[in-house]
């Protein structure tokens, strides 16, 4: 996994300001150093899901995941960008394999003495239901590879919007060394519609945006300790935040290792009534390890 010479770069960084308004490929281009973007296993490789057409769903030739190699502040990097406009960013067999292989190769580079900065652009509803257990199996391997890779270098996730990060990929976000989010970003194991369907509208109204963002939004998640940096929706602001967390090096502790602390904290919550977002914010912030 080596970056091609400057002359072989496929595209220049976009000049737009909003990161959210960009598609996945352009987001990767925007974060990498000027002129270093190079896509691996792109659409011309025709790596399509073999399962979607059987269900009358038109596949995409990159299966909704862009793998980009390049440099970040001169350092080797790989960006895995999920295209939320395709199947809601859901991960199936092919998309999952692109994630898994890229993480494995980055780990091999690190073991050979060539550190690679991994960045995950998480715009996803989780596992692709149309591919069932194939997506679930891919998710488990993604998680295992992130844990293995973060022993060598920080693994950084970015949640920008508009879909957010839910389902199995929210676990992926929780395993990242650092997590960056915009205020527009959302993070949760179950999305609003799923919670409403399972527990009823009295528990959670999925058509109430203020309620959704007060519970799952970037501001709440950062204040509760599940997001490390809250940033504005601006390409350069997000890029600088990304460089800043890589400059910190590997964190001293991981959220995913604080299982007992979170279990003890959750045991103190009174769930007989709907929990007020501000109360949840205070309880989570006071109870987490630092």
TrEMBL record:
It comes from the Bacteria. InterPro entries: AcCoA_carboxyl_beta, ClpP/crotonase-like_dom_sf, COA_CT_N, Malonate_beta. One of its GO terms (biological process) is malonyl-CoA biosynthetic process. Pfam families: Carboxyl_trans. Residues 1-260 form the CoA carboxyltransferase N-terminal domain. Keywords: Transferase. GO terms for molecular function: acetyl-CoA carboxylase activity; carboxy-lyase activity; transferase activity. The keyword Transferase applies. This is Biotin-independent malonate decarboxylase subunit beta.
